[in-house]
Amino acid sequence: MSSPIVDLVPPEMIARYEPVIGLEVHVQLATATKIFCGCPTSFGAPPNANVCPVCLGLPGALPVLSREAVELAMKAAMALHCEIPPVSRFARKNYFYPDLPKGYQISQYDEPLAVRGWVEISLEGAARRIGITRVHMEDDAGKSIHDGFKDSDRYSYVDLNRCGTPLIEIVTEPDMRSSDEAYAFLTELKQVMQFVEISQCDMEKGQLRCDANVSVRPKGAEQFGTKAEVKNLNSFRFLKMALDYEIARQVGVLESGGRVVQETRLYNPDTGETVGMRSKEHAHDYRYFPEPDLVPLRISEEWRARVRAEMPELPAEKRRRFIESHGLREYDAQVLTATRTLSDYYEKAAAAAGDAKAAANWVMGDLMGALKAEGKEIAESPVSAGALGELVALIGKGEISGKLAKEIFAKMFSTGEAPAVIIEREGLRQISDTAALEKIIDGVIAANPKQVEQFRGGKATVLGFFVGQVMKATRGQANPAAVNELLRKKLG
Amino acid sequence: MKISEEEVRYVADLANLKLTGSEVARMRAELDEILAHMDRLKELDTSGVEPMAQVLYEAGETATLRPDCERPPLGQQTALANAPQAGSGHFKVPKVIER
Lengths: 492, 99
Fold this sequence. Notes:
The complex is a heterodimer. Chain A is of the alpha+beta class. Chain A has helices spanning 4-8, 11-14, 67-79, 179-195, 236-255, 301-309, 315-326, 330-336, 340-353, 356-373, 385-396, 402-415, 419-426, 434-447, 449-456, 462-473, 480-491; strands at residues 17-28, 65-66, 87-88, 91-94, 104-107, 114-123, 126-139, 143-145, 155-159, 166-172, 208-218, 228-231, 264-268, 273-276, 289-290, 297-298. Chain A is built from 17 helices and 16 strands.
């Protein structure tokens, strides 16, 4: 969908400007309980069921920080190559809204959990680092529902289950120069968060939310233009569309002699437009002050080392290793590191196969194809990584042909059995035994005198016909290399 | 004068407080005294002292962090028991549009 303004601002006009984009990304930490109380974070509970005096903000209730939330936030910081100072502090961000029962959000302000990191993105083959300004921890607000009830014209409905859900906010430097770069950044960020198992990042459940600061400046200009903050970019598609709209809008404003106003704009996915939010001018005066109910968060060297030891290899590191030591192509390395489950599966299969490249082809080809056909995830694969690796190893050892392996794979996929079991039961072992093959080949030669004559008359392509006949006679079990060799000897 | 009536009204507005004219005057005078006292405290040299916003300070990690273990929540009925208005399992508040 493209909106009127975007159509009005010609691309060559937009091309004279350089967009400057910074993102603020909220990621829900995958803890079982809330950040400051023991209420479950499970999604889909009846409204207002998963609440307690702490997350309801009842007088006298005191927050106690979750160790797991801190460790997940530390892992996020480490995955983003940030520094984690020995002390960080919680602060109250004060504002009034019905889904914020405490009247303030517990966040971090001038002493965040982590600072100064980066994420590497790769766009059209070129790698670029996007700076991370800070990562801080905070609690989530509840949910306001403005529509859908019979008296929604007079009332808003509030569900406080989400109150107190642990979040980290990741703030980037204004380092992105196009909506594509922003898209690539968010993609990489999501992948890293999922890989390290910091968050499931399910955008539909609000586990990954994104706001963008956008400005434009004439190409070559040093100074940043005035920025607008665009909110509600809650899918990858919306992120790109909203940024493209906002960039075009700002260029249009400047080109018509106007100036961009610093404001918060809401993206409306139905119209594809961003709309300025009417807000009180001092709505941003949050009167932060140190949270008196929580002690400063002190992270010792030992604690940091312990958490670092639990860090898995990051997707970018894995990709590099797959390319350098497994000899995979970049595209394949990318596909196989899409998720932690997939890369773990692949590594197990490759180890069992003893041939990393062949294992990669099987995982990306037959396995992913079969899974896709049945709408299954890799975690639900009926073929274990070990079994697939075993199958690949059998081909490598020449015990089964590639063609036969495909049939065996199909059986493995439907029964979940190991390849050896299927081969044994169905007598599918490849026939490499020369004496046995010779007998079959002799029969084929005797039955096809015309083709024999053609071959001897110089028509080399007829060899393929003989190979086919032998394969047919052996139900595909003959070792093709051995068949070729024997045929040449006997026909030649 | 440390604080103006205009500032008092601004802060009151942020705090969702509605003050009458005489209350604004009284608050201004009281806040003025408090701020004057703060100025006196500022005379102390605290350059080598870490700011202290919390009384419990030198506590070990285990004393100030909790394990990720679920505790039974209140449940919807209890949670809504004191709600001025409730419906369909939700708190009901006068219509709000903007944040």
